[in-house]
Protein: Myelin protein zero
Organism: Oreochromis niloticus
Amino acid sequence: MLTFLALTSVALLGIVPEQSQAIVIYTGWERHALVGSDIRLSCSFFSWRWTSEDVTFSWTYRPDGSRDAISIFHYTGGAAYLDNKGPFRDRLEFVGNPGRRDGSILLKNLELSDNGTFTCDAKNPPDIVGRPSSVRLLVFEKVPIQAGVITGAIIGVVLGLLLLIVVIYYLMRFLVARRVFSLSVSKHGKKKKEGSQQRQLWTPPPLTCYPLP
């Protein structure tokens, strides 16, 4: 009876509980970095609602070869809580902007043991239903061969195109100069031939000899 009266009151007053909608979370797919460098792991989300003051971000880390994930960062109530005991102690910094739906973190002075999967989860109440997004971090002592080969190939293609452009440019200049020279020689030869023909057509009058008195 009480439940019926409560529902009736809600209907009469037009009070409808706010329904939550799905939230979509975005991170990168895979990031590469060198030992000793820093890297930013981005996390953002899409929600149909305005950014809530109660927005939250959470990051977890699962090392390669491990099944268990550990919490390394949490943002809630306008405050960021960093990992002070785990593997990223003193090496993690919050660089996001919750007001712009950015929950990115910065990992400093990377080590080979940092290889693993980082998962970001975000909530924008009342939108709290969504699938966390993960990004895999690969740390190398030096640039991977595959990356070096791709970079070298790109540089080679660019240099090849520049060389081809230079060759075409000078070839066009040579052809134009050759054409101009040919026209100049042809025009000069034609004028010379016309002058010779005019000299051949003109003959001086015969000389007449008279006897002396």
